[in-house]
């Protein structure tokens, strides 16, 4: 089933068939990134503008590499250097950019819902590169592609997401996607970092990572931010590393073919020990490679595909 | 302008009246009332006859919690536009909160508001003074000064009084002037960073939540302080089941507490925030279905004495923005009546109870006249067409602001006539 929406704003509103379609399209783009000449003319003459209200290295680079390899013209604005420091509203910033007739906006914002609001007000295609704690659809798609590549499927797998799920858009998008594709999701972390009534997202909740590890086919580890200590959610990084940090000792109880994943950036020694990050179970760098292919697929589908609706979540 | 309201269904909870009657308004007062007055009589010569058969005639409604935004934020609302919105909604009186700019923590601002209202207001305006100077929650405002200037209550509304010692002193000190202390019950440390009710909708949307406990912790505290001080406490915008439960228990123990809720807390839930709808962002936030049921039960059994709108005008600048930046609050004066009537049609309240919640109960709490159609009383009268159905159109509102989530909602029942001091201030008749 082809992708007909104007935008890609989140995983929650997508059907399993749409997710499947995007993953298949992404697979077909992978080999371009392995060629000596990493260029196809698919989006030649198209304009992609990255509007990043929040800092990012990985995601912005990834979208930029993806767009350029498809021959699109790309432009980037980060708000610290834009007129937003002069008090311009985010919507005004985007409307002004829209007046320059881009084909796609890739937008990241620190406020949940900010990208959906913009998407409803512009006729350009909008890709949500992360909005607050709400969704990060391209990350979830590349995560699912990585898992599918190794395990051959998503259905029936047990995926453990470990860490600060309350503040994580990566976790939310993955939960929507994985459950839709038939995986069993376990969310594990301290109660102070798990959102309320999380079970309503069709996941199992656990506070004990050692109980979860033996069951998991995939362990997705989330970054722990220093701020969480300042907010009184945790006593210390040390305690978190002791109770939830993934290290080789803990992984002794894991399945032999477990996949260890992380959206990056990693706090080595906190949520993950260096030997686990660099060890045989880790597919972290593969995630990054897959990210380019997934983002090429997203840009391609939004620009070439048939426009039907705004894809706004209701 | 003298006139007779003919053959309306007169409903007055204070006089336990519910009957068809004629009412004579003469020189700004209710001069006579009876089942079938001799309207052709000599003494009524020259009086305008208004046929209100099929309509309800009730004491002028009183909204004891509105924000008129003047002085300081006149672009959102003024005393003139806000009181026009009030009479369009059937209200003949409003009590306005002190979180203006400057704050109403002294006689100068109270007098300004009363003067403005006398010159430009369409209905009675009763100022509520601040509990603490500047609403800073540090030292008491001069309650005596405020009372002498015309304040009818004190509140730091918009903000809680976080310091329990100060709240205690406020409840004690207010007793000198028989002022009711209106509490905005919110523990800021528990609500900190929260944008909507803590629950599954917040979780799905990646929005930090405000737990019911943020309100309930302070309701518990305020009830205990009211008990300690024997001061008069009124709890503003009650929104949770736990709050209702504690208020009920406190009343059973004899604590001098009264409580209000707003129409959105018995009509909408957190689900209405879905899609990051800033028109459903307010403080306290919209809660869950169980809370709504408890609010309705609290209204039915008298635990909640009053319905007040917390009319909070905001311009498009404050509402059409990212959810975390949007201001809290919605307007309510011009949508309250049909929403309250939904409770009557739904069997939650009898008509007498419903009218009392928006007329005699708030009047009694604030110690202001109103709430009855007794002969001799000032002619503050609201006439309601209970049957008319329509689609609420916020673009036709008198309010300067449009932040209303009920735009487009099918409603039944609306104001036909609003009479303030014998003068027709709003009419849909003929």
Question: Which SSEs are present, and which pair or pack?
Answer:
The complex is a heterodimer of chains A (314) and B (430).
Chain A: H1 16-29, E1 47-52, H2 58-69, E2 73-78, H3 90-98, E3 104-109, H4 114-119, E4 125-131, H5 137-151, E5 158-162, H6 169-180, E6 184-188, E7 204-206, H7 209-212, E8 218-221, H8 227-230, H9 237-244, H10 248-251, E9 259-261, H11 274-277, H12 284-304
Parallel strand pairs in A: 1-2, 1-3, 3-4, 5-6, 5-8, 6-7, 8-9
Chain B: E1 3-12, E2 17-26, E3 29-34, E4 48-51, E5 56-59, E6 61-66, H1 79-88, E7 91-96, H2 107-120, E8 124-129, H3 143-149, E9 153-155, H4 164-173, E10 180-183, H5 188-191, E11 196-197, H6 200-205, E12 209-210, H7 212-229, E13 233-235, H8 241-253, E14 257-261, H9 263-267, H10 289-300, E15 306-307, H11 316-319, H12 336-345, H13 351-357, H14 360-366, E16 381-391, E17 410-420, E18 423-427
Question: Would you kindly provide a written description of the structure presented here, covering whatever features stand out?
Answer:
The complex is a heterodimer of chains A (314) and B (430). A five-stranded parallel sheet of chain A has the order 7-6-5-8-9. Chain A has helices at residues 16-29, 58-69, 90-98, 114-119, 137-151, 169-180, 209-212, 227-230, 237-244, 248-251, 274-277, 284-304, and strands spanning 47-52, 73-78, 104-109, 125-131, 158-162, 184-188, 204-206, 218-221, 259-261. In chain A, helix 1 (16-29) crosses helix 5. Chain A has two domains: 16-136 and 288-304, 3-Layer(aba) Sandwich (Rossmann fold), CATH 3.40.50.1370; 137-286, Rossmann fold, CATH 3.40.50. Mean pLDDT of chain A is 94; it is low at 306-314. Chain A is globular. By secondary structure, chain A is α/β, with parallel strands linked by helices. Helix content of chain A is 36%, strand content 14%. With 430 residues, chain B is an alpha/beta fold. Chain B folds into two domains: 3-57 and 376-386 and 411-427, Urease, subunit C, domain 1 (Roll), CATH 2.30.40.10; 60-366, Alpha-Beta Barrel (TIM Barrel). Chain B is built from 14 helices and 18 strands. In chain B, strands 1, 2, 3, 4, 5, 16, 17 and 18 form an eight-stranded mixed sheet that branches. In chain B, helix 3 links the parallel strand 8 and strand 9. In chain B, helix 4 packs across helix 7. The mean pLDDT of chain B is 97. Chain A binds chain B through residues 12, 89-91, 109, 111-114, 116-117, 131-135, 169, 172, 195-198, 200-201, 312-314, and chain B through 198-200, 202-209, 211, 274-276, 321-325.
């Amino acid at each position: 089933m082809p992708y007909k929406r104007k935008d890609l704003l989140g995983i929650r509103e997508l059907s399993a068939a749409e997710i499947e379609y995007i993953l298949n399209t992404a697979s077909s783009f992978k080999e371009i990134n392995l060629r000596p000449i990493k260029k196809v003319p698919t989006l030649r003459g198209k304009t992609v503008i990255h509007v990043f209200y929040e800092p990012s290295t990985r995601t912005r680079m990834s979208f930029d590499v993806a767009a350029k390899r498809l021959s699109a013209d790309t432009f980037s604005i980060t708000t610290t250097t834009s007129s937003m420091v002069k008090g311009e509203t985010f919507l005004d910033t985007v409307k002004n950019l829209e007046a320059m007739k881009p084909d796609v906006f890739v937008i990241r914002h620190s406020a949940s819902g900010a990208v959906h609001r913009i998407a409803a007000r512009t006729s350009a295609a909008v890709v949500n590169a992360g909005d607050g704690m709400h969704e990060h659809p391209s990350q979830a798609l590349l995560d699912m592609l990585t898992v599918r590549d190794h395990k051959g499927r998503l259905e029936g797998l047990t995926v453990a997401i470990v860490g600060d799920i309350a503040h994580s858009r990566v976790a939310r998008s993955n939960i929507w996607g994985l459950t839709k594709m038939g995986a069993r999701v376990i969310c594990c972390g301290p109660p102070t970092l798990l959102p309320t009534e999380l079970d309503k997202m069709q996941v199992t909740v656990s506070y004990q990572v050692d109980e979860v590890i033996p069951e998991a086919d995939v362990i997705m580890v989330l970054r722990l931010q220093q701020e969480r200590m300042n907010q009184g959610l945790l006593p210390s990084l040390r305690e978190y590393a002791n109770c939830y940090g993934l290290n080789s000792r803990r992984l002794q109880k894991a399945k032999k073919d477990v996949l260890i994943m992380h959206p990056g950036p990693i706090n080595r020694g906190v949520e993950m020990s260096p030997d686990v990050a660099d060890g045989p179970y880790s597919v972290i760098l593969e995630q990054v490679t897959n990210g380019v292919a997934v983002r090429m697929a997203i840009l391609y589908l939004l620009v070439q595909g048939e426009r039907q609706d705004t894809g706004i979540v209701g | 302008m003298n006139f007779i309201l003919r053959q309306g269904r007169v409903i007055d909870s204070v006089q336990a009246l519910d009957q068809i009657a004629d009412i004579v308004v003469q020189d700004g007062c209710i001069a006579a009332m009876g089942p079938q007055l001799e309207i052709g009589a000599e003494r009524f010569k020259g009086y305008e006859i208004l046929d209100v058969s099929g309509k309800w005639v009730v004491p002028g409604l009183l909204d004891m919690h509105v924000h008129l935004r003047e002085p300081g934020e006149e672009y959102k609302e003024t005393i003139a536009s806000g009181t026009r919105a009030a009479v369009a909604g059937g209200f003949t009186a409003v009590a306005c909160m002190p979180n203006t700019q400057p704050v109403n923590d002294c006689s100068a601002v109270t007098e300004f508001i009363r003067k403005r209202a006398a010159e430009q207001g369409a209905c009675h305006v009763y100022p509520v003074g601040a509990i603490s100077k500047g609403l800073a929650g540090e030292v008491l405002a001069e309650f005596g000064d405020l009372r002498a200037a015309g304040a009818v209550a004190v509140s730091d509304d918009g903000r809680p009084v976080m310091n329990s010692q100060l709240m205690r002193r406020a409840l004690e000190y207010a007793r000198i002037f028989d002022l009711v202390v209106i509490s905005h019950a919110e523990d800021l440390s528990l609500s900190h960073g929260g944008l909507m009710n803590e629950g599954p909708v917040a979780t799905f949307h990646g929005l930090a939540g405000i737990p019911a406990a943020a309100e309930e912790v302070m309701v518990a505290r305020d009830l205990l302080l009211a008990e300690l001080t024997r001061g008069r406490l009124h709890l503003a915008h009650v929104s949770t089941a736990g709050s209702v439960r504690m208020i009920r228990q406190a009343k059973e123990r004899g604590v001098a507490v009264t409580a209000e809720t707003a129409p959105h807390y018995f009509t909408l839930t957190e689900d209405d925030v879905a899609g990051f709808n800033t028109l459903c962002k307010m403080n306290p936030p919209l809660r869950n279905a169980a809370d709504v049921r408890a609010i309705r039960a609290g209204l039915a059994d008298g635990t909640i004495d009053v319905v007040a709108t917390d009319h909070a005008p905001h311009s498009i600048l404050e509402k059409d923005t990212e959810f975390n930046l949007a201001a809290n609050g919605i307007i309510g004066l011009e949508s309250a009546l049909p929403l309250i009537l939904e409770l009557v049609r739904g069997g939650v309240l009898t008509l007498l109870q419903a009218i009392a919640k928006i007329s005699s109960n708030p009047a009694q709490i604030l110690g202001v006249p109103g709430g009855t159609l007794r002969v001799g009383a000032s002619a503050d009268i609201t006439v309601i067409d209970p049957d008319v159905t329509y689609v609420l159109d916020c673009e036709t509102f008198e309010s300067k602001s449009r932040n209303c989530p009920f735009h487009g909602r099918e409603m039944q029942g609306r104001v036909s006539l609003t009479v303030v001091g014998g003068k027709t201030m709003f009419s849909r008749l003929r």
